[in-house]
Specification:
Helix content of chain B: 40-55%
Helix content of chain A: 25-40%
Low-confidence stretches of chain B: none
Structural class of chain A: alpha+beta
Low-confidence stretches of chain A: none
Strand content of chain B: 5-15%
Order of helices and strands of chain B: EHEHH
Shape of chain B: elongated
CATH topology of the largest domain in chain A: Arc Repressor Mutant, subunit A
CATH class of the largest domain in chain A: Mainly Alpha
Oligomer: heterodimer
Distance between the termini of chain B: 17 Å
Mean pLDDT of chain B: 94
Mean pLDDT of chain A: 93
Radius of gyration of chain A: 16 Å
CATH architecture of the largest domain in chain A: Orthogonal Bundle
Number of helices of chain B: 3
Largest sheet of chain B: none
Largest interface: A-B, 53 and 43 residues
Number of helices of chain A: 4
Shape of chain A: globular
């Protein structure tokens, strides 16, 4: 895994901050506007951060994940802090309320029966403990294909 | 990493494929709290592999399946 430089961390932290402010994944220009660096420098830093697993880019170099937040719609929808967010997976869905330090409501669907599952999360714990969580990929391979994981 | 209504639903969805790991949803919530707590901190630094492995170990997520790469 690639080491992250202090300058890259400035870009990373600004990327997350802009994601929260905009309620969507920022473009390199959105981040450049607050860091004073050019959009090209932001893109270059994003690629290093991607290689370091500090965020995830799509094939075009756009921001695909600022984990636990997803830049695209997914089956894991989270209502928190007055907005609807998308999580990358069921685990990340809990992470959004945690990262925002607030209660949340998770709406997802059971992959087996397609029935909706709604979880109220209070104090970072679900009020209904009956659903279960299945992890298909061993931890060693999580980053081999993070989209699939 | 998906949420199912019950273990029966997991097995039906797997349709004979081997299970990965079943985790109580409350454990996932604890895991998320430890893993993502600092994600928006202005002075965030990447977790080391050892830090993350310690989180998994503390929640009883141990054994070969839970060994990070």
């Amino acid at each position: 895994m690639v080491a992250v430089t202090p300058d890259d961390l400035v870009i990373r932290n600004a990327t997350y901050r802009r994601f929260m402010e905009l309620g969507r994944a920022p473009t390199p220009g959105d981040v450049a506007a607050v860091t004073g660096q050019g959009a090209e420098a932001v893109s270059e830093a994003w690629h290093r951060l991607h290689d370091a697993h500090a965020l995830v880019l799509d094939d075009d170099g756009g921001n695909r994940m600022a984990n636990p937040f997803s830049a695209v719609e997914t089956p894991h929808r989270v209502q928190a802090a007055g907005r609807t967010w998308y999580a990358n997976c069921g685990w990340d869905a809990f992470g959004i309320g945690v990262a925002l330090r607030t209660d949340s409501t998770i709406r997802t669907t059971c992959p087996d029966c397609a029935e909706s599952i709604e979880l109220e999360v209070r104090g970072y714990r679900p009020t209904d403990p009956s659903p279960v969580f299945h992890v298909l990929v061993p931890a060693h391979d999580w980053w081999s294909d993070i989209g699939f994981t | 990493m998906l949420v199912f209504r019950s273990e029966d639903h997991v097995d039906r969805w797997l349709a004979g494929r081997p299970r990965g790991a079943i985790v109580p949803i409350t454990t996932v919530a604890e895991l998320a709290e430890a893993w993502w707590w600092d994600r928006l901190d202005p002075d965030w630094r990447p977790h080391t592999r050892e830090q993350n492995q310690t989180i998994l170990d503390r929640l009883g997520l141990t054994g070969e399946f839970w060994q990070l790469g």
